[in-house]
TrEMBL record:
Keyword Cytoplasm: yes
Presence of the UniProt keyword Isomerase in the record: yes
Main localisation: cytoplasm
One Pfam family cited in the UniProt record for this chain: PGI
Compartments reported by the entry: Cytoplasm
GO BP: gluconeogenesis; glucose 6-phosphate metabolic process; glycolytic process
Organism encoding this protein: Cognatilysobacter lacus
Protein function: Catalyzes the reversible isomerization of glucose-6-phosphate to fructose-6-phosphate.
Keywords assigned by UniProt, alphabetized: Cytoplasm, Gluconeogenesis, Glycolysis, Isomerase
Pathway note: Carbohydrate degradation; glycolysis; D-glyceraldehyde 3-phosphate and glycerone phosphate from D-glucose: step 2/4; Carbohydrate biosynthesis; gluconeogenesis
Residues annotated as catalytic: 332 (proton donor), 363, 472
Family named by the database record: Belongs to the GPI family.
MF-aspect GO terms: carbohydrate derivative binding; glucose-6-phosphate isomerase activity; monosaccharide binding
Protein name: Glucose-6-phosphate isomerase
């Protein structure tokens, strides 16, 4: 069956629902706020301001059921080869949960537990070595998750070591990170699943030379041989495995920067939060399953309402990196046009994910969200109990969070076109009790599972990323031309290189 045929009942529902304003959908269904909400552990999620009604939701749940969401999740958790194009499992759940009963999942779980013992020892060794700063060198999945978690969860007063991140190959990035650090009191973590990523290797060389010796050099990789060739002593290499995708790897020893910043117990509590979400997602039927609900809502917005972008708006400054993290998780996973069998998907897949932290963003791009011609569905994330003083600020923050979601949904009429707010702009509201490691773990696991279920609807592989290879290959070919040692084949690139050389 074509995906378009599969989704056509949704388009029929959308044509009907769009006759009624979102404000009226809410007003006409007094139980909607209660019934369109779910709580899982520390997360309350409300879908009451999505632009669907009970009839459309039924069609969405029927879609999830007809696609055997339950069985597909079971296959994921069991370690079946869900990464079809690379013929391997995607067993990130085994890094934190042992729910499946399948042999492979159980043995992966045991291996991961063992690796955490080594990880705890490395944390202790670094913290007790007189090191004050750690630079984590990695990019993409070897950077964004730990960077988010460290930024969200560590407090300058409690951190036992300061953790810095270096990802961009731009030498200014290295210069900036190293400027205030003392090489004799700094350790470097080289984080790369492949240990073949150019950016990480170049920055790794910078760090190795800057440190002067290898006694404070650590590696986290699935390719121990390459790390050793690079000069990382093997006894200071923590393992990764090919059954964990890069962007799903923060639960492994890739999370070492998190454990350094918040302690190993804090890191394990993040795993427990993810595990709680895993258990919910693995066990609950589609209509009570938060990941299924979130995924089906994404499909509704993309394929029934034709909305081409999705904003994520954390109303907590500590979560300001959540949009960056989700950009890789969602867009590298779902930015595909080919079905599992290689045929064309034939419908739109991932929208553009973007966003930023409120209330700052209210003063940058919110104007367009309220009155622009493009409707952008939003995921709001609020945190109810703050960890900071300044109670008045937090009350103001929460009032803005609630106000924006209300304004997007309801709008406000005016005879003056410039002062008219159309409303009808959908959003999901996530409220976390508090921003604990446990809650962050649960939130991230939720997004991971939602991404997987969206991939099931579109019949695409959420676990490969061949799209990023071409640019890397061309850059490798062009490096000699940039150095003036060769000519480029492409005429435009050749002209640009001539400009560069005249500007040097
Ligand atoms: O951990 P590695 O192997 O250095 O890869 C870094 C990142 O590069 C990618 O392969 C492409 O962006 C990501 O999927 C991965 O997270």
């Amino acid at each position: 069956m074509s995906i378009a045929d599969r989704l056509s009942p949704l388009r029929a529902e959308a044509a009907r629902v769009m006759q009624t304003s979102l404000r009226t959908l809410v007003a006409d269904d007094p139980d909607r706020a209660r019934d369109f909400a779910l709580r899982v552990g520390p997360i309350h999620a409300s879908f009451a301001r999505q632009r669907y009604d009970r009839g459309a939701l039924e069609a969405l749940f029927a879609l999830g059921e007809s696609l055997d969401f339950d069985a597909r999740l079971e296959a994921l958790f069991a370690g079946e080869h869900v990464n079809v194009t690379e013929a391997r499992p995607a067993l990130h759940t085994a890094l934190r949960s042992d729910l499946s009963g399948a042999e492979l999942a159980a043995s992966s779980h045991a291996v991961a537990r063992e690796a955490r013992v080594a990880m705890r020892a490395v944390v202790e060794a670094i913290v007790n070595s007189g090191v004050t700063d750690v630079v984590s060198v990695g990019i993409g999945g070897s950077d964004l998750g730990p960077r988010l978690a460290v930024d969200a969860l560590s407090s300058p007063s409690s951190a036992r070591v300061r953790v810095h991140f270096l990802s961009n190959v731009d030498g200014h990035a290295a210069q900036r990170v190293l400027a205030s650090l003392d090489p004799s009191r700094t350790a470097a973590l080289l984080v790369s699943k492949s240990f073949g990523t150019q950016e990480t290797l170049l920055n790794g060389c910078v760090l190795r030379d800057w440190l002067g010796d290898d006694t404070r050099l650590y590696g986290i990789t699935a390719n121990i041989e390459r790390a050793a060739q690079f000069g990382v002593p093997v006894e200071r290499v923590l393992p990764m495995w090919d059954w964990v995708g890069g962007r799903y790897s923060m639960w492994s020893s890739v999370g070492l920067p998190i454990a350094l910043a918040i302690g190993m117990d804090g890191f394990e509590s993040m795993l427990e939060g993810a595990c709680e979400m895993d258990a919910h997602v693995a066990r609950e039927p589609v209509r009570r399953n938060l990941a299924a609900w979130h995924a089906l809502t994404a499909v509704w917005n993309r394929n029934a309402l034709d909305l081409a972008s999705q904003a994520v708006l954390p109303y907590d400054d500590r979560l300001r990196l959540l949009p960056n993290y989700l950009q890789q998780l969602v867009m590298e996973s779902l930015g595909k046009s080919a079905r599992m069998d290689g045929s064309a998907v034939g419908v739109d897949t991932v929208p553009v994910w973007w966003g930023g932290a409120g209330t700052d963003t209210q003063h940058s791009f919110f104007q367009a969200l309220h009155q622009g011609t493009t409707v952008v569905p939003c995921d709001f994330v609020g945190v109810v109990q703050p960890d900071a003083p300044h109670r008045d600020n937090h009350d103001a923050l929460l009032s803005h969070l609630l106000a924006q979601s209300e304004a997007f949904a309801n709008g406000q009429n005016s005879d003056d076109a410039h002062r008219h707010y159309p409303g009808g702009r959908p959003s999901t509201m996530f409220l976390l009790d508090a921003l604990t490691p446990h809650a962050l773990g649960a939130l991230i696991a939720l997004y991971e599972h939602s991404v997987f279920l969206q991939s099931v609807v579109w019949d695409i592989n959420a676990f490969d990323q061949f799209g990023v290879e071409l640019g890397k290959q061309i850059a490798n070919r062009l490096l000699p031309a940039v150095r003036g040692e060769a000519m480029a084949d492409d005429p435009v690139t050749r002209a640009l290189l001539a400009e560069i050389s005249s500007m040097r």
